[in-house]
Amino acid sequence: MSVRAVHVQLQDPAAVAELLQRMRATVRDIAGAVVASHDGLVVASDIDPVVEVAANETVGRRSRSAPEDTAHKTSAMAAVAAGLGAQFTQAAGSGTMQAVTFEGNRGCTGVFPLTSALLLVLIGAPQVTMGRFVVASKQALAAMLGPQPDTQR
């Protein structure tokens, strides 16, 4: 599949949702993924319910919320993080921003440019180390941008 075909596929929310499900099923240490526009709008998401519960507990909410809540919050913050990351790498002379990663005491989160218009937000599995998260992130990006199985048979 050509790069152009991948970009066209990434414009279809249903295709993106399917890609996220496939990627999460094959990449160990990724517990959630959101594809968002650069302005922070959710295109598609696939987040483990355990991560959703942990996110709610972290902010002290008692009510159960939908996975879309985490997807919407992380996509909005990803847009800001990507903008800051791009400015930071430029100011530091580090070239084009490739990733913005955050490490917490219970796991990692990262923001990665997929295309000029889309970002990939990855949420590491609980307790994943930064080293394992970096490896899993590279596998996830390859799964998202690499050749896709032919599903039109």
From TrEMBL:
InterPro entries: Roadblock/LAMTOR2_dom. SUPFAM superfamilies: Roadblock/LC7 domain. Residues 16-123 form the Roadblock/LAMTOR2 domain. It comes from the Bacteria. This is Roadblock/LAMTOR2 domain-containing protein.
